Recover the amino acids of this structure.
């Protein structure tokens, strides 16, 4: 799921904070409402990675290896199950860096 990195924490502007391990440890999980019933599901934070926008992770269905290679914060082991990636640009305007927060259901 890609969202714009908007200043003052709007949209995915707060994802940059996830590059700090202490911040992730305080949060631990994220709630996401999924269609069609928009029931909230709780997802644990597994890994946070920073990659270039042309990284294979954006074209690869087997993403676990790419996440592990580029991890800056690891909270939980990633299991072999559905993974949701939250991503946005990371750094100054015009950067080719992307931050990725990998989530899996509890």
């Amino acid at each position: 799921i890609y969202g714009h990195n908007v200043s003052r924490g709007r949209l995915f502007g707060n994802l940059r904070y996830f590059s700090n391990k202490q911040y992730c440890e305080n949060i631990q999980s994220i709630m996401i409402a999924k269609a069609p019933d928009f029931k909230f599901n709780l997802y644990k934070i597994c890994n946070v990675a920073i990659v270039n926008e042309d990284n294979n992770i954006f074209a690869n269905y087997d993403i676990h290896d790419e996440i592990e290679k580029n991890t800056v914060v690891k909270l939980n082991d990633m299991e072999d199950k559905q993974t949701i990636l939250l991503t946005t640009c990371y750094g100054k305007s015009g950067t080719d860096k992307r931050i990725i927060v990998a989530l899996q259901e509890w």
